[in-house]
Design brief:
heterotetramer; A mainly alpha (359); B mainly alpha (666); C mainly alpha (165); D mainly alpha (102); A: 359 residues; mainly alpha; 0% strand; B: 666 residues; 75% helix; globular
Chain lengths: 359, 666, 165, 102
């Protein structure tokens, strides 16, 4: 983004205009990416679930394996009538999906797609992500409450409880990495994972970088809960709450929730990759083709996306592997299992660091 | 090792934590923890003391406790002869009393609670003594106040006990306010609260200190008087002594530790610690001396007629504290602290002896129901005798040296009147001590039977501390106090106060001896009188005496009605006002009604008509006014939080307005 | 008018307007939502003050934590139809006056009180600096606050628990 | 550059608004919210001071952190109390809860 601003100012565009323009451009890009990627992921998820159940899933639309299915769905959603219940609190009802989507959008700011390829390299990156992602639940509660429907209220309250509970282990499990790196800056974290670890070519956090396997698992579990994925999807448990907080939503607003959910999935995966799986690091195989300036970037993006989508695949896989937890089980898991484990991990990391400094 | 001084308060703190948090676990093993903690800290204190004697000293900040703007108060320790002596006394006496308590409290349900409080008290007292700045000292000061409150009300199910606790707490608050104000002034004058910095800053700030501030008193005088107000509260001097006798509601070891040996001497310690300031304020010194002497005399008179064994000792404590302040007031700080130390030993011994007697008589405290316990309680009676002799100031026991030094210094300071008061007090001291001794251990046996038949000497765990304290009582006096003013002790502690620029009154050897002889004679006279009256136990003389001076006797017996006075003034006042209002109200309203009645009757009496109507109207108006007033008054308490909040914010608003009107915020 | 000033005035107006909604709104859930956004506006102001760490903490704790709890309690205690009920008590006039006067006074004090330096002093990087301060100068308050939080947690659990019969 | 006084005035305004709310809202939770607004006003002035006054090496930030922590505790306790009130009085309007009166 700074890059864009420089270019624009170099071309004689006034600074303010350049800044605004750059912001708008970036937003446009991200929104585009989110929607496309989300559609792709939806289609992908449907295929995966189908194949896991030895079905085929969408096959017709667009020819090859129904790749255009979710595009069609999207179009349909956009064209549908936008219904607002009469007893709803109109303003809040209208605001809710925007909040959810906007937060999902805002989290992309600090995703390091590649070396130097990120919207804004905040030096509180991780903290920024954590705080922004905690905004999502606000939107959910607004949605659930404003639609004035007992299912949605229940879903919203479940979601609030879940989010607040799982926020804690999420943060604590990430803290280990932050302690090791000594910075909240995403790029710094990625840089820190450079180099080799003995025979292995990776010095990732879950490997030599910090042995943060436990932290990674805690983070991943908590993150699943954060974005209401199976097995933590009780806020929108179809079989209990119809569809939870967004039961009253339809048309474009519904599609916003839907997109936001998948966007969140991606961000969660991206953060996990950045913090634990070495970010965009990977064998740089394209520099010979594209030259030293562009090559590393391309390779970085490639590896980053590969890792992220692998994690997303794992999420979908889990969805068809695990059964949904009951509310009390959920709380039990969050407070009495995840939290202690992540604290132990934190303490162990601290100890490890101290010992390392000693020798 | 001196650097390890922080261990001294921290060790009891460990005890507090263990017994406080895991009391249900330690249960009746609680005393082990507590005694171990205090014992260890006593050992450390002993080592440090020895090193200080050899010449070590320490003034170190360990941690910045408060840092706000340019105000900073460290958590730091100051180890010099003065504080080390205090530390030693506190830890040793405390340790012995802990041991004793293990026996005295052994079948008490709240065993761990008791020892938690005791250890907490040790912590606070040591912080008070070792602090190197006024704020930290004040922390300890409040801490001991809290523990005293908790321990006086230890048997909280007894209303008298909890009331006594509250009384002690409230009375102490008055003094604490003084200390706080003094600290504010000190901070404003010296820009620091550390003893060293304050005392070094005196030279620089002399101009300010000597400037008349309030009522023509110099600033330093005001500071010292405020400090002394705190001292009177904590050390039970006139007029704030009233809480100490009631404090005897607490368990006897508590009375021994807190209300005889350590806490009540905190005031003396503070005055002595602030000697450099006091030396600049002769007026304040005079006040201290006068209050001390008067208290010494006054409390002694009361002690002469009390019949509750513990209260006699309590008033004796007040009186002895009076002597200490007298010493400070005449500039004999060293002697005062010396008396503090010796008194700690023999007064603790006295209390523990009382405790042992009470224990033996299964809770009996009235000395008229005792007597001839000498054979039954041999060890107790023997140590009690030593302590009484010491308190009476018989050579060569502890009390003699210190008290005599104080009196000698008073004489040498040409405060002849104060000296006379002190000596009279000494006479009565000897008298009441032996009145107590003879009525309890000799005289006639008035023990009622079911108490008598399981009368027993206390277990060793209680008597051994008695014997140790008795030994100390026998030796410390001449060991450290001889020769007067040049003994080991004085060469040790005196240095502190010489630095403080204390004017030592040179006192010739002859005078010393003469005064010593006089003092001894006085004490012997008192003892003789007591022996003549109470040895046999059936001498009618005391009764006749009481008859002769009935008025005086009853006055003294009722402690000069000071408590009643206070209650009348401060407590009943509020009620009085309300009742008065109500009375007026009722009377006036009735008057109104009757007036109306008479009005109808006397309608024909034109002459009276105007009169009554006038009265009627007037009366009604008054009634309305009063009713309206009371109505609006009770409306104040609405029970709605937000009204209170509103009142608060209005107050804040007013404060802000005043502040800015006075040009603040610019 | 530079971007910074523009942002400042925008965020200030935003926060104040939403704060007004918070205290005046008829419907309490709307008030809570307004509170959330007003917090976000303040977070923006913190960023203007180079306090990005606190801005993040603000969003994380206040928005993600406290207001969620508030909303939670609202959902547990009240219905959606908040129409028609009196939201202000009878002392609103007096308190309004008090508040306004206090506002004015504080404003006066602020404007005539402190002269800020011409150029902003150099500021160390947020997060490490705060960490160091918390661990050195303010270690004791830090511990005190943590104990306070512990006590608060215990108390909250105890209060909110249904008394078992 | 925005002068310090602007931040202080803003904080004063927010504080006043919060005070008004705390004084005159009936719903207990609204009072809590108003108090949160006051907290934020104070935080703002803390941070503004520590930004503009050179001698304060970001100590204001630390105080703000403390304020936030205390606010969190306060919210938790307050909400527990509100739930208790609701359980016992079936209302959360504090001006209807006045048992502690004459």
């Amino acid at each position: 983004m700074d890059f864009l601003i420089e270019k624009a100012t170099a071309l004689g565009v006034p600074t303010l205009l350049a800044q605004v323009g750059a912001m708008l451009a970036v937003c446009a890009v991200i929104i585009l990416y989110i929607s496309v990627a989300a559609m792709f992921m939806i289609w992908w998820e449907r295929k995966i679930s189908a194949h896991m159940q030895v079905r085929l899933g969408p096959m017709r639309v667009g020819g090859w394996h129904g790749w255009a299915q979710s595009i069609a769905d999207g179009v349909k959603l956009l064209l549908k009538e936008d219904i607002i219940p009469t007893q709803a609190d109109k303003l809040v009802f209208a605001l809710a999906p925007i909040v959810v989507f906007a937060t999902a959008l805002a989290t992309y700011v600090i995703v390091p797609f590649g070396p130097g390829l990120m919207v804004k390299d905040l030096n509180i990156g991780v903290l920024y992500y954590i705080s922004i992602s905690s905004l999502t639940v606000v939107g959910i509660i607004m949605a659930g409450w404003s639609s004035n429907n007992k299912y949605s209220v229940l879903g919203a309250m479940r979601s609030a409880a879940q989010a607040v509970s799982y926020e804690v282990p999420l943060v604590v499990s990430v803290l280990g990495v932050i302690m090791i790196v000594g910075s909240l800056n995403m790029q710094t974290i990625v840089e820190h994972q450079a180099g080799r670890w003995g025979p292995l070519p990776w010095n990732w956090m879950i490997f030599g970088g910090g042995l943060q396997v436990v932290g990674f698992l805690c983070y991943f579990t908590a993150a699943l809960a954060e974005c209401n994925r199976m097995p933590f999807d009780i806020p929108e448990a179809e079989s209990e709450l119809v569809a939870g907080f967004h039961v009253e939503y339809s048309g474009i607003r519904f599609s916003m929730f839907f997109l936001a959910e998948y966007a969140n999935m991606f961000v969660v995966a991206a953060i996990a990759v950045t913090m634990f799986l070495g970010g965009w690091r990977g064998p740089d195989f394209v520099s010979p083709l594209l030259g030293a300036t562009l090559g590393p970037k391309v390779a970085g993006v490639f590896w980053f996306l590969t890792k992220s989508y692998f994690l997303i695949f794992v999420m979908m896989w889990l969805r068809w592997t695990l059964a949904r937890l009951r509310v009390d089980q959920l709380m039990h898991l969050g407070w009495k299992v995840l939290l202690p484990i992540s604290f132990i991990n934190l303490g162990a990391t601290g100890l490890w660091l101290v010992l390392k400094d000693m020798r | 090792m001196v650097e390890m001084v922080w261990l001294v308060p921290v060790l009891p703190l460990v005890g507090v934590v263990i017994n406080g948090l895991f009391g249900h676990k330690t249960g009746h093993g609680a005393h082990k923890v507590a005694i171990a903690a205090t014992g260890l800290s006593a050992a450390v204190a002993l080592v440090i003391f020895v090193q200080v004697v050899v010449g070590a000293s320490l003034d170190r900040d360990i941690y910045t406790w408060v840092a706000a703007g340019e105000f900073a108060a460290p958590i730091g320790f100051l180890v010099d002869p003065l504080s080390s002596v205090m530390m030693l006394v506190v830890t040793v006496v405390g340790f012995l009393i802990h041991v004793y308590s293990a026996g005295y409290m052994h079948d008490d349900p709240g065993y761990p609670r008791f020892f938690t409080y005791m250890n907490l008290f040790m912590v606070s007292m040591l912080v008070l003594v070792l602090a190197n700045n006024y704020l930290l000292m004040f922390l300890g000061w409040e801490g001991v106040g809290l523990c005293s409150y908790l321990l006086i009300g230890y048997w909280y199910e007894k209303k008298s006990a909890s009331d006594a606790g509250k009384k002690a707490f409230v009375v102490n608050r008055i003094g604490d306010a003084g200390v706080l104000l003094a600290m504010f002034l000190i901070w404003r004058t010296f820009g620091s609260l550390k003893f060293t910095e304050v005392f070094d800053g005196i030279g620089g700030a002399k101009a300010v200190l000597m400037r008349p501030s309030v009522l023509g008193l110099t600033l330093v005088t005001v500071i010292c008087l405020l400090l002394f107000v705190g001292a009177t509260g904590k050390s039970a001097q006139l007029p704030l002594y009233v809480w100490l006798p009631d404090a005897m509601e607490g368990p006897t070891p508590v009375s021994a530790l807190i209300h005889a040996a350590t806490m009540v001497t905190a005031g003396v310690y503070m005055v002595a610690r602030s000697a450099p300031l006091f030396n600049l304020a002769p007026t304040a010194l005079l006040v201290v001396a006068v209050v001390g002497a008067v208290t010494a005399f006054f409390a002694a008179t009361i002690a002469c007629v009390q019949t509750d064994i513990k209260r006699v000792v309590a008033y004796s404590t007040i009186s002895q504290l009076g002597y200490m302040f007298l010493g400070c007031g005449v500039g004999a700080y060293a002697s005062a602290i010396f008396h503090l130390g010796t008194h700690a030993f023999f007064k603790a011994l006295l209390f523990l002896g009382c405790g042992s007697v009470i224990h033996a008589l299964s809770g009996e405290q009235d000395m008229r129901r005792m007597g001839q316990l000498k054979e039954k309680l041999p060890r107790t009676s023997r140590t009690f005798l030593w302590a009484s002799l010491a308190n009476a100031g018989i050579i060569p026991l502890a009390g003699f040296w210190s008290k005599d030094e104080i009196l000698a210094a008073t004489f040498a300071g040409h405060h002849y009147l104060l000296w006379a008061l002190g000596s009279a007090g000494a006479l009565m001291t000897a008298f009441y001590m032996f009145r107590l001794y003879y009525t309890v251990f000799e005289g006639k046996n008035n023990v009622d039977h079911h108490a008598a038949h399981h009368l027993h000497e206390s277990p060793p765990v209680m008597t051994v501390p008695l014997l140790i304290l008795g030994g100390c009582t026998l030796v410390v006096g001449w060991l450290f106090g001889f020769p007067p003013d040049h003994g080991l002790y004085h060469r040790f502690v005196g240095s502190v106060f010489e630095e403080a620029g204390t004017a030592e009154h040179a006192i010739s050897l002859v005078l010393t001896v003469v005064l010593a002889v006089v003092a001894t004679l006085i004490a012997l006279a008192g003892i003789g009188l007591a022996k003549a009256w109470y040895k046999t136990g059936d001498n009618p003389a005391p009764a006749r005496f009481a008859e002769q001076f009935r008025g005086l006797y009853t006055t003294v017996l009722n402690k000069y009605w000071v408590d009643e006075f206070y209650i009348a003034i401060f407590v009943t006042f509020g009620k009085k006002v309300c009742r008065a209002l109500w009375g007026v109200d009722a009377g006036v309203v009735d008057g109104a009604v009757n007036g109306a009645g008479w009005l109808t009757v006397a309608i024909s009496r034109v002459s009276a008509l105007f009169d009554f109507r006038f009265v009627d109207g007037l009366v009604n108006r008054i009634a309305d006014v009063i009713q309206g007033g009371s109505q609006s008054l009770r409306k104040i308490q609405t029970g709605v939080i937000q009204n209170y909040l509103l009142a608060m914010s209005v107050a804040v608003l007013l404060v802000t307005v005043i502040y800015m009107a006075m040009g603040g915020g610019r | 008018m530079s971007v910074e000033q523009g942002l400042f005035y925008f965020l200030a107006a935003f926060s104040v307007a939403l704060a007004l909604i918070v205290v005046l709104a008829q419907n309490i859930v709307r008030a809570a939502v307004a509170l959330i956004f007003s917090f976000c506006g303040l977070a923006g102001l913190y960023i203007l003050l180079d306090a990005e760490f606190l801005a993040a903490v603000q969003v994380l704790i206040y928005v993600g934590g406290i207001t969620i709890l508030l909303l939670f309690a609202i959902l547990l205690t009240s219905r959606i139809a908040g129409k028609g009920v009196r939201v202000l008590n009878e002392q609103k006039v007096v308190s309004g006056i008090v508040a306004v006067v206090l506002m004015v006074l504080l404003g006066l004090a602020a404007t005539r009180g402190f002269e800020a330096p011409a150029e902003l002093p150099k500021q160390p990087e947020n997060t490490p600096r705060i960490g160091t301060l918390l661990m050195t100068t303010y270690a004791l308050p830090f511990e005190a606050v943590s104990i306070l939080l512990l006590a608060g947690m215990v108390g909250a659990i105890f209060l909110a628990r249904k008394e078992e019969k | 550059m925005v002068p310090l006084s602007h931040y202080l005035v803003l904080s004063a305004i927010l504080f006043g608004i919060g005070l008004f709310g705390a004084l005159s809202r009936r719903h207990a939770i609204s009072i809590l919210m108003a108090i949160e607004v006051m907290f934020n006003a104070v935080n703002l002035s803390f941070i503004a001071f520590s930004r503009y006054l050179p001698q304060s090496q970001m100590q204001g930030h630390v105080f703000a952190v403390f304020v936030i922590a205390v606010a969190a505790a306060e919210a938790a306790i307050g909400l527990a109390i509100v739930l208790g009130l609701y359980r016992n009085f079936k209302t959360v309007n504090v001006d209807e809860i006045n048992l502690m009166k004459w």
